[in-house]
UniProtKB/TrEMBL annotation:
GO biological process, alphabetically ordered: DNA-templated transcription initiation
Keywords in alphabetical order: DNA-binding, Sigma factor, Transcription, Transcription regulation
Lineage: Bacteria, Bacillati, Bacillota, Clostridia, Christensenellales
RNA polymerase sigma-70 region domain sequence ranges: 32-92
GO MF, one example: DNA binding
Signal peptide: none
Name recorded for this polypeptide: RNA polymerase sigma-70 region 2 domain-containing protein
Organism field: Candidatus Borkfalkia faecipullorum
Transmembrane feature ranges: none
Gene3D superfamilies from the UniProt entry: Lyase, Ornithine Decarboxylase, Chain A, domain 1 (2.40.37.10)
Entry-linked InterPro entries: Ala_racemase/Decarboxylase_C, RNA_pol_sigma-70-like, RNA_pol_sigma70_r2, RNA_pol_sigma_r2
Length: 175
């Protein structure tokens, strides 16, 4: 982050310190996306992350006098967002929401979003954590006997191959 951006954040925090509403608006314009990114990185749910950002703004306004002028305001704001997100995660018990689906080959197969699962074991159901269209791709690939796609995991700049292509003709012929 360049010096000019840091100065703008400091200016926004100074406005908040003086009780001026424009400071909150300015901080939102400058850091709203970053705050959402930090929150979503912890809670891994867009709607919960938005709630965390709103709660963080309240904490920033109420706790503004805990921030020293001239300190790293960017880091201070990010720390508040991260801690708020961690607290939110602890309150929710750290339970994850899952997407459950069948193979999408019959009319009986359904997609269910955010169905909480307890005690799911391998082989019980097909479960993907926050899968979105990925589960649909799997089902269509199986139905059409097309190879299942490669699955990668990205952490920062590191890309790890979790699964290579799978020929679905072999899966579909198993009894």
């Amino acid at each position: 982050m360049d010096l000019q951006a840091r100065e703008k954040i400091e200016y926004a925090l100074e406005q908040i310190r003086k009780g001026q509403d424009e400071g909150v608006e300015t901080l939102y314009v400058l850091m709203g996306r970053t705050m959402l990114f930090v929150a979503n990185g912890v809670v891994r749910d867009r709607h919960a992350a938005e709630d965390v950002v709103q709660e963080s703004f309240v904490k920033i306004v109420k706790g503004i006098h805990g921030n020293r002028a001239g300190s790293n305001g960017y880091a201070w704001v990010c720390r508040i967002v991260r801690n708020t997100a961690l607290n939110d995660l602890r309150k929710s018990g750290g339970a994850e929401e899952w997407t459950v689906c069948g193979s999408l080959c019959t009319t009986a197969d359904v997609l269910v979003k955010n169905l909480p699962l307890t005690g799911a074991k391998e082989g019980d159901v097909l479960v993907f954590s926050k899968a979105g269209a990925y589960s649909v791709t799997e089902g269509i690939s199986l139905f059409l006997s097309r190879p299942l796609p490669r699955v990668y995991q990205r952490e920062g700049e590191t890309l790890t191959l979790l699964r290579d292509f799978i020929k679905t003709s072999q899966i579909n012929q198993k009894e």
